[in-house]
Amino acid sequence: MIQSRTEERSSLHSATKKIPVTDKIPTTTTWLITTSSFSFKIIFINTNNVTLYKYCTSFSLANFLPLYKHTNPLPLSFFLLFRDITVFMAKSILVTGGAGYIGSHTVLQLLLGGYSIVVVDNLDNSSDIALKRVKELAGDFGKNLVFHQVDLRDKPALEKIFARTKFDAVIHFAGLKAVGESVQKPLLYFNNNLTGTITLLEVMASHGCKQLVFSSSATVYGCPKEVPCTEEFPLSAASPYGRTKLFIEGICCDIYRSDSEWKIILLRYFNPVGAHPSGHIGEDPRGIPNNLMPYVQQIAVGRRPHLTVYGTDYSTKDGTGVRDYIHVIDLADGHIAALRKLSDANIGCEVYNLGTGKGTSVLEMVAAFEKASRKKIPLVMAARRPGDAEIVYAATEKAERELNWKAKYGIDEMCRDQWNWAGKNPYGYGSSDSTN
Known about the structure:
By secondary structure, the protein is of the alpha/beta class.
């Protein structure tokens, strides 16, 4: 089915592109292209013999432009060339934990990609200020974001949200994530992360929403004996937090085995860093940071005196531990790729690593941040911590091949954006007298 109608504007994508085209389009026209597998719009605006492609994804634009030059008007056979391209527009997505670090960046990318988003977050370890800034960054697309302050364990509240909106899929970030705290408070982590997920899955099933992208973690690989880590590696977890991720992965696989209508993608993140290039949203941990880069940024703005480097005698280039750091924007884009993958008829329950496939040592990361910030980070060298892995980085071939996704940013861009966020927001979303 092909429909054409005049339209002044569309809210499909934030990027506006001016591209000269040899053929002329006499009026401002919207072509709505619908096939059995996807539906999206391409908008042409002809002004002074220059064609503007407005609110059109760069992916569809790149495939469309060379073909458009050879045919006008566009016959039905032309549109069949798009049948293998999966583009989701105006889909309704529930994002749990969407006010958090990775969640807020993903919500922004989804809004700019044309999705309608409902965020559920209890704000225990996040701030609604992040979502307010996401709305600002999204511009006109901000109106497609709705927020509910709800705990996933509150089943009646969750039922009301699902009764109000028919969701196409769910992205599940919500959960406690501090490894050290999980060792001290394991029951808190099992209750929050496992009970919340089970409640979410029950409500999804009762409302016929059986498409899920789950935020897992590379922590499920434990201390791998070799690298890079492939998705087929043996799984183990050294902390209650890691075990909650491992348990949830198992629950998701069991659900699919019991009901093949489910489509589930498990994304194993490595080490997210960086921030949105605008510097308006970024990582704002509560209390003492558990990860390297938020700790380093707090030293750079004067909130902490020095960085303790645990372990200087590893079998690495400089003796410090090596990890796979990935820009949070790359990670967010990985979720959009995962949502597209859910359209595959035979997706089942699949797992993908999201990383760069490159290892960077602690000292290399600190040096890159010092270069970006022009701040000296004082270091205190200490002995290894029990349970810390020596070298961990991802095998990314499966995600590159099946999700058509690949990390684009290097450590220089990661540190640049991390410092831009920290410099503009030295106390995160709070103030100097806040508890953050």
